[in-house]
Design goal:
The protein is α/β, with parallel strands linked by helices. The protein is built from 17 helices and 14 strands.
Length: 486
């Protein structure tokens, strides 16, 4: 049915595409093709609104196959035949109360009350005796019974056979239909992109050979479409400064900002208009993301291990032409480990690789990075505090955020008030203690699981031994000496 609808729409589609001068649309028009004979076959063979499953029957149209029509009519007109037979038998026997009936045990029958003591026609054969009546069968009724009871089954089997035969008739057109389907899919994508661009005021991006990314008033195409409130657009500038260190509260829009950047780049490279006021995009070879957190139980990998695998892939494969999105690297382990890893990853990206990087973090120590590297820059997603409430502005502003608003977000999430109050007291106590930097200096060094023990003195001593010159006593004394070096 869907194939028939598609073929029915093709002439109008060809007419619309013939008016265009676009080279791609003309190519699509040629690949669509025409299938008048196939459309005529489907119109003859399939009813307008067939059932979902062929096993239910009723798919093949009336008039397509004479034997199928006969079997269907035999089944559908069974009651008419029985009424006609009943009237004829009443006239033949003179019994006005004669009835023609059916049950699942005995099939069709002619029933005559015992009160009518008459001479019955010779072709009446007794089928069943009841208390007040006798039931008979005739050759004519038996023939009808055999035909009716098998007609439905035969009709369904024939219909299935005809349906399978249709596939054989369609098969020679399969290659052309495949090309047509591919052309329709491409046209479907183009028309949807065009509709979204026109409806949502997308702009044509400028792809340039010059380095850098510049997006004015960029928007997230999905979030903008699904949320009822106004979407707050934000700018992006990556050129001389290749890294943005992004801070701000949870729910402030950091991840949305990063994702919309990647989506705008992808849409531009696929030939689509983009959700922005303007977009100038230089050459990019790959997009890398380290966003979200989930474990991989099947492979025995923790959330942090998955995070580190993704980070390793980025650091080993990104180039100066890559776009890298790093969201809260290091949060799956201890504070110091996480901060150290986040700092080192960001440092390698900005210092060694030079990739275009959006690095979102809750480690405020990371905001010191731009002070060491000119290619890094601090930005934050703004929010304002009103009493005990927080209002997310979702606006990107220069500089680092001054706090994370974690307690306010927890309160918004419905964390019990007594827990919030206890957290406030704990936070005040922690803020009076030493900074993370001083703590780091006073912490005892963490044991290195992969470090090798320093056995240089032992190795040097062994290298100086000439075993051929050792006496048994000297060898024993040397053994004790080596043991002290372990």
């Amino acid at each position: 049915v869907q194939l028939r609808r598609m073929l029915t729409a093709l002439p109008n589609l060809h007419q619309s595409l013939s008016a265009t001068q676009a080279r791609l649309l003309k190519q699509i028009d040629r690949e669509l093709g025409t299938f008048p004979e196939l459309l005529e076959l489907l119109n003859r063979a399939i009813i307008e609104e067939p059932p979902v499953l062929i096993r239910d029957g009723g798919v093949i149209a009336e008039g397509y196959h004479a034997e199928l029509d006969r079997l269907r009519n035999l089944h559908l007109n069974a009651n008419d035949f029985l009424r006609d037979l009943e009237q004829r038998e009443r006239e033949r026997t003179g019994v006005s109360t004669l009835k023609v009936g059916y049950n699942k045990v005995h099939g069709f029958f002619i029933e005559i009350s015992r009160a009518h003591n008459i001479q019955l026609p010779a072709d009446y054969q007794r089928r069943q005796t009841l208390k007040n009546a006798e039931r008979y069968i005739t050759a004519e009724l038996k023939t009808h019974e055999d035909q009716v009871l098998s007609a439905s089954e035969k009709a369904l089997a024939l219909e299935k056979s005809l349906y399978e035969e249709l596939f054989k008739l369609i098969h020679p057109e399969l290659a052309a239909l495949t090309h047509c389907a591919a052309a329709l899919a491409e046209l479907d994508v183009l028309t949807n992109l065009a509709e979204r661009a026109q409806t949502l005021n997308y702009v044509a991006p400028q792809l340039t050979a010059e380095q850098g990314l510049s997006i004015q008033a960029g928007r997230h195409p999905v979030v903008e479409a699904v949320q009822k409130a106004h979407f707050c657009p934000n700018d992006l500038q990556l050129n001389e400064q290749s890294m943005l260190v992004i801070t701000g509260p949870n729910m402030g829009g950091k991840s949305t900002y990063m994702r919309q950047t990647a989506l705008i780049v992808i849409m531009a490279y696929m030939g689509s208009y983009v959700p922005a006021d303007s977009a100038v995009i230089g050459p990019l070879d790959q997009i890398f993301t380290r966003i979200g957190a989930s474990d991989d139980l099947a492979s025995g990998r923790s959330t942090f291990m998955v995070e580190m695998n993704e980070a390793a892939n980025i650091l080993n494969n990104a180039s100066a032409q890559s776009l890298v999105l790093m969201d809260e690297v290091g949060r799956g382990t201890s504070t110091f480990d996480g901060l150290a890893l986040a700092w080192s990853c960001a440092e390698k990206l900005v210092r060694d690789i030079g990739a275009y990087t959006l690095f979102a973090t809750h480690y405020f120590e990371m905001t010191q990075l731009p002070g060491l590297y000119d290619k890094a820059c601090n930005v934050h997603l703004d929010a304002i505090e009103h009493g005990d409430k927080i209002v997310f502005l979702h606006q990107l502003k220069p500089g680092a955020a001054n706090q994370s608003y974690g307690l306010q977000v927890a309160q918004l999430a419905g964390v019990p008030n007594d827990v919030i109050q206890a957290a406030k007291h704990k936070l005040a106590a922690l803020e009076t203690q030493r900074t993370v930097g001083s703590n780091l200096q006073e912490q005892p060094p963490q044991q290195d699981l992969f470090a090798q023990p320093d056995n240089s003195a032992l190795i040097n001593k062994i290298e100086q031994i000439n075993p051929d010159e050792l006496t048994p006593k000297a060898a024993l004394e040397l053994l004790y000496e080596l043991k002290k070096l372990i």
